[in-house]
Amino acid sequence: MSDDDKPNTSQRSESRLQREGRKGAGHRLKRLREQGLKPPISPHGAESAHEVRSNYVLDCGWGRLAFGQTFHEADALVGALREERGDTRDIAIYVRDPHVLLASAPNELFLDPSHTFRLNLPTYRVSKRMPKGYFIRRLTSREDAQAINRIYASRSMVQISPDFFWSKRDARVLTYFVAEDERTGDVIGTVTGVDHARAFGDPERGSSLWCLAVDAQARHPGIGEALVRRLAEFFQARQAAYMDLSVLHDNEQAIKLYEKLGFQRVPYFAVKRKNHINENLFTGGEAEEGLNPYAQIIVKEARRRGIHVEIIDAEGGLFRLTQGGVSVRCRESLSELTSAVAMSICDDKTVTRRTVARAGVRVPAQIMASAGDAAVADFVAKHGAVVVKPARGEQGRGISIGLTQPDEVREAIKEARQHADSVIIEEMVRGKDLRLVVINYRLVAAAIRLPPKIIGDGRSNIRELIEAQSRRRSAATGGESEIPIDAETERTLLAAGRSFEDVLESNEELTVRKAANLHTGGTIHDVTDIVHPHLVEAAVLAARAIDIPVCGIDLMVTSPRSVDYAFIEANERPGLANHEPQPTAERFIDLLFPLSMPLAARQALRKNLQAGRTDEPSDD
Fold it and tell me: Which UniProt keywords apply (predicted)?
């Protein structure tokens, strides 16, 4: 090389400065990745495949994400959050100085009590285990969007317009995955991903996970994990550096899953607006410790309307609601408006049956166990299969279904007498168990209840599968639903030619109890929109015969769309939380405190009453 070709001192200094500048930029980028307090991103000093956009806000349908690292001024970020639309939830994420932001609008904003977790995608390892009984795919239809909304509603999440889902189905910023049941075709889970590089030109090549939700009635294990893994693999293939997510600090079940998958907590902050959706997050909520889900849903709705709540006995679900000069004591959905006479009718199934039968409701044939062995044997021979149940009781305790042999009936009678002195033997009506919730003599919700089933994996025996499914049902229902391993479960298995020690083939399904009660592991599936008016009429007729303002009417039906039915029983304290997203708690509070209803709703109700149409199902 000649002296003329050699770089001079000035050139060498400039080259060294460029190298140091790039090294410094890389160091700063690494530091902001690791330390979490993100400074505002500048398009200069860091390489990016896209131009970095300033003050970037992404509409996700349920609300907007304001990426704090793209904002240079706190006032601009506050202004963006002030543009939040009604009934949505905006989130400012990656806020570098949350204390400064909160000081700018202390009456409007609050620090979100959520942790941020990060999955390092270059080191993430794909699982070799494949989903069994379901598969993960992209959103492909408007029906998918409606199914996602159903899951959101059941999880008390903000719903999204199906048109929004559909318009974003091929977007490069937002990605939707769903889990589909192979047998039924039902959507049983969903997750949303955001590509930060395509959104605002993120030089870190980040991504994030939002709105992970699984149908509480899903029977397959590992749906949430499969959705998270699929999204991680999706972003990994697109060379994203990491995938972040935000989770409430006390959501132990979700945090346990994320840590299992390799997520690590990182110190990033999110800020939200004080609105009615976020109220429990910035007020700390009220002391509801010990209340079960059936009491909580009513207490929450009452407090939302400004009705005073006094918890009398949390463990027993007892509370008092007061507004103005009206005070009502409740035990879950049982209130002082239900008379002792109506409650006693529901309590004794023989009296319930006679009461509704006189009103013209179709009831199955029945005999008392005290009628004697000969009469019972004749009854079983006549009807082929029978149900044995205690005359008093709830939650499916002591009920045996599908008995065909006299010795089976005798054993079932002994079991039922542990719960009540009087025992009923009833004609077994085949079909589906339909629960209709009637409030103020109007249908509010209808749901098919299915008995608990397990799905084989080719390794675990039936006892292990039942225990695993029971744990999942308990977690999904706040401990309200578990599958007992008792004589009824064993009898159901024996009828299917199985025992607790048998191993089911992979994806083989087996019903382990015949009763569909939620408390004994059953699942519940909303059919409010399709239930036949004739079934609604029968339920309202039964409620009026008992003269009970709030009740759950159980019918055995061939289909919720068919007119065929048989009355089973009436429950004076139906679990309103089981029927979300139907407005069961809202209608319950409407009944107790009609003046707390919105004016338009009161006027519509008054018009219906004047027109004499109180027996029609609600359009809400």
Answer: ATP-binding, Nucleotide-binding
